[in-house]
Amino acid sequence: MAGEPRHVFLVDGSGFIFRAFHGLPAMSRPDGTPVNAVYGFTTMLLKLLNDTDADYVAVIFDAGRLSFRNDIYPEYKAHRPPAPEDLVPQFSLIRDVVAAFNVPSVEMEGFEADDLIATYATQARHRGAKVTIVSSDKDLMQLVGDGVEMLDTLKNRTIRAPEVFEKFGVAPDKVVDVQALCGDPTDNVPGVPGIGVKTAAQLIGEYGDLDTLLTRAAEIKQPKRRQTLLDNADAARTSRELVRLKQDVPVTQPLDSFAKRPFDRQVLADFLAVQGFKSIVARLGGSTATPAAATVPAAASTFIAAPAVVTAAYELVTSAEALQSWIAEASRAGLVAIDTETTGLDPLKAELVGVSLSTAPGRACYIPVKHDSGPAQGSLLLDAPAAAGPTILPRDLALAMLAPLLADASVLKVGHNIKYDMQILAQAGLSMAPVDDTMLLSYVLDGGSHGHGMDELAALHLNHDTIKFAAVCGSGKNQITFDRVPLDKALAYAAEDADITLRLHRFLKARLLAERMVTVYETLERPLIPVIVAMEGHGIKVDQPALMALSAEFGQRMAQLEVDIQALAGRDFNVGSPQQLGKVLFEDLGLAGGKKTKTGQWGTGAEVLEELAAQGHDLPARVLDWRQLSKLKGTYTDALVAQINPRSGRVHTSYSLAVTTTGRLSSSDPNLQNIPIRTEEGRKIRHAFIADPGNTLLSADYSQIELRLVAHVAGIEGLKRAFHDGADIHAITASQVFGVPVEGMDPALRRRAKAINFGIIYGISAFGLAQQLGISNGEAKSYIDAYFGRFPEIRAFMERTKEEARANGFVLTPFGRKVYTPGIKDKNGAMRAFAERAAINGPIQGGAADIIKRAMIRLPAALAAENLSARLLLQVHDELVLEVAEAEKEQTRAVVRRVMESAATLDVPLVVDAGFGANWGDAH
C-alpha cells in the first residue's frame, strides 16, 4: 500500500478538454484526425506535472451525458447541444494521453466528474492530505476550505475562500444554497425566477441557510420576492439537490492508486510523434515513431494550422429566451467574442445600437437594442427563408441579461479594439472583464510589419473578405448611422465582426505561445486596456476662456506676420498657399536652392524654409513662424474648445494602442502628445489644461530615460557610473570625450556633448550632427569618432543590433517586444540606412515605451492601496499627468515616484521628476 498522501491533485479532465478545444485553432494530424484539443490537453498536463509538488495525481472525466440528477429532474442539462463534431474523435485520444503520462484517470457511469472529485477530495482530507482541484468550474467552489483549494491554470490563480466569496457573496459552505436560489441556465437548473446571485447571497446571509429562508419566506417584506419564494420553494429544494455534489460516490478505484508515478518519456514521445506533435516530442528528447501519415504539414511544427473554410450561420436575437440561450452557451464555452455597433466613433458620444456574440467559428448572433429601420427585409439565419420582421428586445432588458456574462470572471471576452467596446458598455453602466484583444495580439506578434485592422487581418490570416461598413451604411453625404440599417443587413455585418474576431483569436493566441510573446502581451498590453479606458474616460479639464484668448492672440500675430511677409515679398499673396509662396521665393525673389516637385511646383516644406532662413533670408523665417502659429491655432486653441465634451466639461483624447512601431501610445482627437514644449506658444497652451477646484495637476516625467537605456543595453560602464553618481551626464560625456574638466566647462561644449548623446540614440550621421551644431562635416565626424573611442561599447551595440535586425527582420526591446525593421536589406542605400537607424533606436525608444506602460499598469492599484483618490489623466511619451486632491499631494507624489522608478530594474537607476501646478504648464 502506498504511503499516506500529503498533497492530492484532482484534475477536472472534462474542463481541460473544452478549454483546450476552444482555446486553440483547428488543427489536424497528418491523417486528417482533428487534434487541437489533444495538443492543448497535452501541453497543459505536461506543465502541470512538471510544476506540481503533489504526490498523488489523477484526472477525472465525465463518463456520459446522463447522471443520477436526470432521475431527480429529467430536464437537467437537457438543452445542452451535442459535443462539436471535431471534438468527438479526440475524447479517446485524450484518455490515451493520460495513460501515456502514466497518470490514473477515473470516470463512472451515472455520476459527473464533479461528484468523483468531491468524493476523492473528502477521502483525502480524512487522511490529512491537502487537496488541489485543478479547475475553474464554479460548481466545485462549494468544496473549497478545510485544506481544499482550486487552481485556475489559465489565469494562474489559486481559488480559496476569499475568491469564492468574491464570486458568490457567501462562504464556500453556503454556495449550494445560493446556487439553489439563483439556478444555473447553463445546466438547466431552475432555481427561483428573478433571484440572482447578489439577491441570493443577501437572503442567505440574512436567514442563514436555504431551509430557514423557505420556512420564513412569508416574513419577507417585498411582496413580489415573498410570493416568488413561496411559489417556488420546491423548485429551490430540487435545485439544491442538483447542484450539491455527492461526496460519497461508491468509487471502485481507490485513492491510493493515485500515487504519482514517473512516466516513460520514450513511450510518451512515441505516442505524441504519431499525433504529429513535433515540438513536444523534441522537448522530450525525440522519438523513432512515425507520424500517422507519411508527411507532416509545415503548420504542424508550430501547431498553427491554416484556418479551415467556415460556413456561417448567424442568428438575430429578438427574444429573452433566445438571448438566455446564447448567454448559457457562452458561459459553457468559457470564451465569447463580442462586438458593439453604435451611432458613431466617439465612445463618449455614440449610442449603443446592438451587441454581437460569437461562441464558435461561423456561429454568431446579433442583439439589436436600438434600430429605427423597421423590420428585416430578409432572413434571420443566413441562407434561410425570409421571415417577418421581429420586434427587438428592450434595451434595458437586453443589457441587464448581458451584464452578468460581461462581468463573469470565468468567461473570457474577446474583442477587436475592445477598448472601444468597453467604453461604449461603460456608458450603459456595464463593466466587462476579463478581456482579450485580437488587435493587440496581432500588434504584439507582428508590430509594424502590417496594419492591425480587422479587415486586413481577416484577409491576411483567414483569406476572408469582410463586409465593409460602406456597403452597409453608405458613404459621403448619403451615409446613414447604424441604427438606420435594416436588420437583415445589420445581422450579416455585426455578427460577422464577432465571428471573425473569434476566428482571429484562435489563430493569433496560438501564435503567441509558439513565438514566445506571451509575456509581452500579458504584462505590457492586455493589462493596460482597462487603465487606458479609465484614463480616457476621466479626460482633462481645459480653461475655455484662456484658449479663446490664445486663439485671438495667435490670430492677431498671424495677421501682422502676413503684413510683414507681403511687404518683404513686395506684393500681396496667400501666405498659406505653397504654390504662391514658391513663386515668390524662387521666381520673384530669385532665391537659390529651389527644387520642383514631381507636380512641377516649387517645394516649400519646412526643411526648405529652414535652410533658406539659416542663410539669413527673413521672409522664409517669418513664414515658418506663421505656420507654427497657424498649426497651434487650428490644432489646439480653436479645436480644443470644440472638443470639450458637453457632459463632462472636459477634453477626452483617444489613445491608439497598436499604431507605432516601437510600442509607444499615440494620441488623437485631440493629439496632446505633439504640443511643442520648448516654445513659448506651446507652453501657453499647456497652461490652459487645468485641475478641478480642490485639486492640482501632478506631472511625473522620467529623467533622461532613453540615455539610461542606452547605458543599460549597450553596457557603457562610464555612463552607468555617471548615472549612479547622479552626475550631469552631458557634462561628464563632454569631459570624457573631449578631455576637459567638468569644472568651468564651456557651456557650448556641453551642448555639443548633449547633441551627440541624443543623436547617437537615433543613429545620427556626421552630416546630421554638423547641420544641428552648425559646424563642418569633418569636425562633426571627429566628435563622433571621439565619442566611439571613449565609449566603444556603443559602437559594438550598434553593430550587434543591426546584425540582429538583418538576421530576424526585427530587434527586441529589453522586455521582449519585437520592433520590426522593414528595409534593413533594401538595395537602396538611403532606405537601408534609415532602417539601420530605426533598428538602433528600436530597443531604446521601445524600451522606454515598455517601462512607462509597466508603470501605468501598476499605478492604479498602488494608489488604491494607499486610499488615494488621484486619477491618471494623460500619458505623453515619458510623462504621466495626474489630477490630485490638494490634501493628498505629497503622499501621491511619493507613490507615483516609487511606482515609476521601480517599473523596471536596469543597470542604472530610473529617476522621476515630479511637480505640481494648478495647470499643466506650471506642473511640468
Automatic annotation (TrEMBL):
Q: Report the EC number(s), separated by commas if there are several.
A: 2.7.7.7
- One Pfam family, please name it: DNA_pol_A
Gene3D superfamilies in the record, alphabetically? 3.30.70.370, 5' to 3' exonuclease, C-terminal subdomain (1.10.150.20), 5'-nuclease (3.40.50.1010), Ribonuclease H-like superfamily/Ribonuclease H (3.30.420.10), Taq DNA Polymerase, Chain T, domain 4 (1.20.1060.10)
Q: Where are the annotated coiled coils located? A: 870-902
Q: Where is the 5'-3' exonuclease domain?
A: 6-261
Query: Where is the DNA-directed DNA polymerase family A palm domain positioned along the sequence?
Result: 682-888
The answer to whether UniProt assigns keyword Nucleotidyltransferase to this entry is yes
| Top-level EC class | transferase
* Keywords for the protein's UniProt record, in alphabetical order: Coiled coil, DNA damage, DNA repair, DNA replication, DNA-binding, DNA-directed DNA polymerase, Exonuclease, Hydrolase, Nuclease, Nucleotidyltransferase, Transferase
Q: Which CDD domains does the UniProt entry name for this protein?
A: DNA_pol_A_pol_I_C, DNA_polA_I_Ecoli_like_exo, H3TH_53EXO, PIN_53EXO
Cite the PANTHER family for this sequence.
DNA POLYMERASE I, DNA POLYMERASE NU
**What is this protein's name?**
DNA polymerase I
| Source organism of the structure | Magnetospirillum sulfuroxidans
